[in-house]
Write a structure and sequence with these properties.
Number of strands: 9
Helix content: 25-40%
Radius of gyration: 20 Å
């Protein structure tokens, strides 16, 4: 029987974390009424540790449905993620980092939600907590008891697409996702989940369920780092393909919205206006087409944040 939902896990050199994650998923999947509805699909980005053996051993003893693929060389995070998206077969997918942990009961909620024949969602966004090295959880999103049903459209993309900067726990309807993303080859980027989520939010209803908080490990080393503009130039690429669908005004709203909410990426410091001006110029020069009014909107936002940075002094 084909799985209704595949949990997609791109991984690289995190055998111990992956083993722990598989143990957690075994508990969650084992508690489902129909565990065969869920399959785990792992793409190993040519790890040099024991990842292959960990998956092989777990596949033998866990009774989980596990598919495993090992890339012949490290193709990078974005390409590895895209490989999973291209090769998945289930109607719905759930993204999960190799060192992140789904909330208890979340899979049961997801399966119930995607089985809704009247209004099946295109996207489910969970809550989020940061898992610190000392084991303490730091809440990242305000919790509410009841999930929010979100009609498709620009307002949905404006309010929720920025949350897809963190992939773990995101559930998506697979149909059309891969094709739409690769149609815009020039805008491929490490934050493709924002593109995928925006596609869903513009075209299909969604659910926001912050009471199910994914535990995101924040202390493990990553094989990437921020650039001079906090990778906002890469983030923005995820929004560019929707210019023709939304128009310039709404595209600007999405870019400014993300820039304001994630302004920590600028790492604004008092006494360093030249640094901020340089970031402003870099970000504007990275945009591949003219957006009337974007420069002034961004400039006002950055000046406000710069002035606020002086308050503690």
């Amino acid at each position: 029987m084909s799985a209704i939902l595949q949990i997609l896990i791109p991984t690289f050199n995190r055998a111990m974390a992956l083993e722990k994650n598989l143990g957690h998923l075994k508990q969650e999947i084992g508690g489902l009424a129909h565990p065969d509805n869920v399959e785990i699909f792992i793409s190993d980005n040519c790890s040099q540790d024991e990842t292959r053996q960990v998956v092989k051993d777990y596949d033998l003893i866990s009774q989980l449905r596990i598919k495993y693929h090992r890339q012949q060389k490290n193709i990078g995070l974005e390409a590895n993620v895209l490989w999973l998206l291209k090769n998945t077969e289930s109607p719905y997918i759930l993204w999960c980092g190799d060192d992140d942990f789904l909330s208890e009961g979340y899979l049961d909620f997801v399966l119930s939600s995607i089985s809704d024949e009247l209004v099946p969602p295109g996207l489910i966004i969970p809550g989020l907590s940061s898992l610190l090295e000392n084991g303490i959880l730091s809440p990242g999103r305000a919790k509410i008891d009841d999930p929010i049903s979100i009609p498709s459209g620009f307002e949905a993309a404006w309010a929720y697409s920025h949350l897809a900067h963190q992939m773990s726990g995101l559930v998506m309807k697979r149909e059309g996702l891969y094709e739409h993303y690769v149609d815009f080859e020039e805008y491929r980027n490490p934050y493709l989940f924002i593109h995928l989520a925006t596609y869903e939010l513009l075209n299909r209803p969604a659910i926001y369920a912050p009471s199910f908080d994914t535990k995101v490990t924040v202390f493990n080393a990553k094989d990437w780092s921020y650039n001079e503009v906090g990778l906002l130039d890469e983030v923005f690429k995820s929004y560019y393909p929707f210019k023709s669908q939304l128009g310039e005004k709404q595209l600007i709203e999405l870019l400014i919205r993300f820039s304001i909410i994630h302004s920590y990426r600028y790492d604004i410091k008092p006494f360093k206006p030249g640094r901020l001006l340089n970031q402003f110029r870099q970000l504007n020069s990275s945009i591949p087409f003219k957006l009337e009014g974007f420069k002034s909107r961004l400039g006002v936002h950055l000046v406000k944040d710069y002035l606020l940075s002086w308050k503690p002094l």
